[in-house]
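Lab notebook, bench 4. The sequencing result for the construct came back, and we need a structural model before the next group meeting so we can plan mutations. Quick request posted to the team channel:

Model the 3D structure of this chain.
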Amino acid sequence: MKNKILILLAILSFALCIFILVLHFLSDTVNGAPHNAKVHFEQLNTPYELASFNWNGQTIKYCSTGLEDSGAPVLLFVHGAPGSWEAFKSYLADYDLRHKAHLVSIDRPGYGYKVSSQPVLSIEEQADLIKALITHLGSPDVYLIGHSYGGPVVAMVGALYPELVDKVLMVSPLNDPDNEPVKWYAHLADLKLSRWLLPHYINVATTEKMSHVNQLKAIENEWSKINVPIIHYHGKTDALAPFDANVNFSRQHIPKPFLRIIEDENEGHLVPFNKPGTIKQIILEMMEP
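Done. Here's the predicted structure in token form:
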């Protein structure tokens, strides 16, 4: 019996080591490494730019494609956790989108290739970052798309800086502070030993996750200030951002004239990756007069 337990522990330890190595191996892909960007966009014959700007002393990176005219509308994508600009690379390379707009996908603070800084936990501060990028880009027409953690960030831009935004799309957002699921693996990742073993982007995501309830509570009274059109797209099988709680939160807190909810019967949390054609069509509709 003792030998069986030792063997089982050895197998579990080996599997854990392999899992951690895989997470480190995926760092370049998840964090939008320049060499991966080059391969991706060149294969799809898509001109692109990896750029940056200064915000509160931090260097914030982003990737852009599409129309370079300063008067072109901007589609600005904001990723979840973990993630980087890379999460929306398929949209940045889409022929139809990049011939209609200037497409920009940002690294939120703490994320990105060879970044060692810590995240900015305040959702209002992250909204201020998006405001700064919008100002930096200088377009008169701006459409925001945020997935997961990026959802409340883009919504807060609509609440705090409505003069800068035309429309907002939240996909699978985590809005409701009273129904924010913290899975067992998040608690495991938050252990000191785990943080030492895990790659930086996982640690940043864990830090955000453990603080998200408090950060959502801090903006709970801001949702009612929204006065730009908001589309909330949510899958009914979403286990990471529970459908009922988050959709009901939007219904209760976002002024009804500005809210449109799209329910997906069979989709989970990863809608932007599983149904890019659907999200693309919504984006194109957003840009219509």
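The beta strands are 48-55, 58-66, 74-78, 102-106, 142-147, 167-171, 230-235, 259-264.
Will bring this to the meeting.
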